[in-house]
Predict the structure.
Amino acid sequence: MIRIALDAMGGDFAPDVPVEGALAAADELPPSSEILLVGRQTEIEETLAKHGAQADRFQIVDAPDVVGMGEKPLAAVRGKPKSSIGIGLGLQKRGGADGFISAGNTGAVMAASTILLGLHPGVQRPAIGMLFPTGRQPVLVLDGGANVDCSPRELQGFAYIGAVYARDVLGRSNPTVGLLNIGEEEEKGSAAVKEAYALLKHSTHFQFIGNVEGRDILRGACDVVVCDGFVGNVVLKFYESVARLVHGLLDREVGRDVLEAP
């Protein structure tokens, strides 16, 4: 049985959107799965009723406090131990849930995860992982913005946890890892990236293929791409803009009727 705790108060449109997501997921997940809605119980029950769903369809875990999207992460985590983020991660820590999902304050989720769940030995910082679709299978890129400046050891840690995710979640038996750089040559890049290259090429936990460039992400050159959070977030925002650009170009050149046809 898999139990997932969902932050019902996380995001700009909570609790409506998280509850709607839980209802949609419940229709698709096997009966052995269970979703726990974490947040203000009264608001969750009212939202379920608004969507015509019975409150007993989910286990509701009351969390009276909410971390706002604009709050300072560490201060919010320490000042609001009974927030939906804190209680949800506490469930995971105690074994009451197998995982925790939140669309809330990213920094608060990262800080609370580090404090409550801890880090894997050898990993110095948590990272945000992003799955990029390709012509073949998704590529995991990390860090996506949690750590703007990263040391070589931290980049090495990202490679390790990325490879574990690729193996255990994506099913890649022998994950390949690439280091995002401005060229394929070993001597290219900043001092931190060059030192990270030296560390990664001696790793025995995954297959390091060397430096990769931005163009290699979408062609699926490797299973995991490692970079600092500044670069990763720029890549993400650029990628998001491409979809809007392509849609706009098609809309202009082909015509709206074609795009909207069933």
Observations:
- Residues 2-117 form a domain with the Isopropylmalate Dehydrogenase fold (CATH 3.40.718.10).
- The mean pLDDT is 93.
- The chain has ten helices and nine strands.
- Residues 29 and 163 are 26 Å apart (CA to CA).
